[in-house]
Design brief:
The protein has 511 residues and is an all-alpha fold. It has 21 helices and no strands. It has helices spanning 4-19, 22-28, 37-49, 55-65, 77-94, 100-118, 123-145, 148-162, 172-188, 211-224, 228-241, 250-266, 270-283, 289-305, 312-315, 323-336, 339-345, 353-358, 362-385, 401-416, 486-498. Helix 6 (100-118) packs antiparallel against helix 7 (123-145), helix 7 packs antiparallel against helix 9 (172-188) and helix 12 (250-266) runs antiparallel to helix 13. The chain starts with a helix and ends in a 13-residue tail after the last helix.
């Protein structure tokens, strides 16, 4: 049966190969419905003349129509391109977008064949198509990964096919990222042209043009499925083989720097994360509000952990709308040394906890900012009871750690709800002092229990480690609140000094 539309399509593809016009070839290789009328006719011809079991005949048709001299100098490029073109025809003929998993598998196979062409001498022509296919595959993989019903069906299907084989299951997003990474490697390993990878105008040439486009797609998928080790390989290859980042467009630079900052943030390198995120924020277009807001969330968090709090004008920017209500209370608690407020604001049951968990920054703020609260506690205590020293007599300023212990214990009790929030260390009436003086350990002194008060009911909650026989209750230590001790305070202050958050040293001779 005659296939005039297919013949005309192949002749146009041959012309584009002679002209080496990769952008126009991407326009011709339409693979996303809805199809234009011309492509509907071509699909109808393919289904009638070259059904599924006639794939070999379809490949011979492509070989006969495209002239053999299009093979070029590299050798083998013609064969790989014919296989890709045959795979493309099969894709548009058989794809059913209502079957998302099958569509994903067919698109993945098409990209795999295009990646083979990418390594041939005609690879530069197919590069725009590879980039477009990679973008579509990444969107589809992330969308499918959020469909738990489809993922469950995929898991059961793999389990049936795999039999007794065990191992870590590769998600759709990770499998797609691994395939796109192969295309990225071929872009990064480009050896043609200048040894520096730049043309006469100082711009990347050859397949190196797509290095950061493909890298950003890989990083997007790896961060989605939380495979940081795979992301590390991308950064290592770029560091070794890529031309300078400054030679690429601003959009590619911004995206790459954002993921670089996210990578350092996830590995607790917050200063490096701040540098990368700040560079990404500065280079991000002012109208890209969503991207600027995304960068700003991690930039503020990185700076908070470093002890740098955002100023008022930062919250006034359009992309920072709503961030003040999230971050400012925590910053105020850190600056005041208010351990009770800090614990409450970073508690998993707080109203803002779900927002912080969504952006994966709650644990970093909770664990890394508490040391800053201790620094503020030490500073506030020194301002109240510290000895300023005497420079003339060469006496250094000193701070009694017992005073820090008193303040820290009171704040910890407030955080645990043991004492009211308005209780103060020098509140003499509430601590049994009537002579105007405050006992050093006044916060440990409580009113005696009246004699007519019934004894507290023994509850299993008092012994979280397990059951205790009633006959042995008098011989078992009841668990109490985990309050600071002198050893805790001393080790914390030593840690602050070691981290250069406090300047000084601990003297045991002045006890």
């Amino acid at each position: 049966m005659a296939t005039p539309t297919v013949d005309k399509f192949l002749s146009e593809i041959a012309r584009l190969m002679r002209e080496k016009n990769g952008t126009a070839m991407l326009d011709f290789l339409c693979y996303e419905p809805p199809w234009p009328p011309l492509y509907n006719r071509m699909i109808s011809e393919l289904r009638q003349t070259y059904p599924v079991f006639q794939q070999a005949s379809l490949e011979r048709k492509c070989t006969e129509t495209l002239p053999a001299e299009e093979e070029g100098e590299g050798g083998g490029s013609f064969t790989s391109f014919i296989s890709f073109l045959s795979q493309y025809f099969a894709f548009i003929r058989d794809v059913d977008v209502s079957q998302l998993l099958e569509t994903h598998d067919k698109l993945k196979a098409l990209l795999g064949q295009a990646s083979i062409v990418l390594s041939a001498s005609t690879g530069l022509i197919i590069l725009p198509t590879v980039i477009s296919l990679s973008r579509t595959l990444s969107r589809l993989a992330i969308g499918l990964d959020k469909r738990l019903d489809l993922v469950a069906n995929l898991t059961s299907r793999e389990a049936t096919a795999g039999g007794e084989e065990t191992g870590e299951r590769v998600t759709l997003a990770e499998g797609s990222a691994n395939l796109i990474r192969e295309a990225f490697k071929k872009c990064a390993s480009e050896r043609s042209g200048n040894i520096s990878g730049l043309d006469g105008e100082g711009k990347p040439e050859g397949r190196r043009i797509g290095i950061y486009l493909m890298a950003n797609l890989c990083l997007k998928l790896f961060f989605h499925c939380r495979k940081l080790r795979s992301a590390e390989q991308i950064f290592a290859m770029i560091y070794q083989q890529s031309p300078p980042l400054s030679l690429y467009p601003a959009a590619q630079r911004t995206t790459f720097l954002y993921y670089l900052g996210r990578y350092h943030f996830a590995n607790n390198h917050f200063y490096r994360a701040q540098l990368a995120l700040q560079a990404a924020y500065d280079q991000c277009h002012r109208q890209a509000m969503r991207q600027r807001r995304l960068i700003l969330i991690y930039l503020i968090t990185s700076n908070m952990i470093l002890g740098r709090f955002p100023k008022a004008h930062t919250y006034q920017r359009p992309e920072a709308r709503g961030l003040k209500e999230k971050f400012e209370p925590i910053c105020c608690a850190i600056a005041k040394g208010d351990m009770e407020s800090f614990r409450r604001l970073t508690d998993i049951n707080h109203s803002s906890a779900s927002w912080f968990l969504h952006w994966r920054i709650l644990l970093q703020i909770t664990n890394r900012c508490e040391v800053l609260v201790w620094r503020s506690i030490a500073r506030k205590t020194f301002l109240i009871s510290g000895n300023l020293g005497d420079a003339a007599n060469k006496k250094a300023p000193t701070l009694d750690l017992d005073d820090v212990l008193i303040v820290a214990t009171l704040l910890e009790k407030r955080a645990l709800g043991i004492v009211p929030k308005d209780t103060a260390p020098n509140d003499s009436k509430k601590h049994g002092q009537s002579d105007g003086r405050t006992h050093t350990n006044s916060i440990f002194i409580f009113p005696p229990t009246p004699a007519d008060t019934p004894p507290a009911k023994e509850d299993e909650d008092e012994f979280p480690d397990g059951y205790v026989d009633p006959d042995l209750l008098d011989f078992v230590d009841r668990p109490g609140p985990d309050l600071p001790t002198s050893e805790t305070v001393e080790s914390t202050m030593a840690s602050l000094v070691d981290q250069d958050l406090l300047h000084g040293y601990i003297s045991h001779g002045q006890k």
